[in-house]
Amino acid sequence: RLLEADKSFRVSKTSKSSALLRTNIAVLKARLNRSTREEAFVEISRCARLAAGRSLGVIEAFCDFAPGVSAAADVERLVNQAAEWHDPSDMLSVRARHAYLMTDFDQASRLAIEWARVEPLNWLAVTHSLFMESVWCRRYSAAAERGLASLVRFKSNQDVINNVAYALAMAGRSTEALELVRQLSEDDPVHVATFGLALLASGEVQQGLRMYRSAFEIAGLNGDSSGGKPETIRPLIALNLRIVLKELQIGEDLVG
Question: At residue 248, what are phi and psi to the nearest 5 degrees?
Answer without folding.
Answer: -85, 0
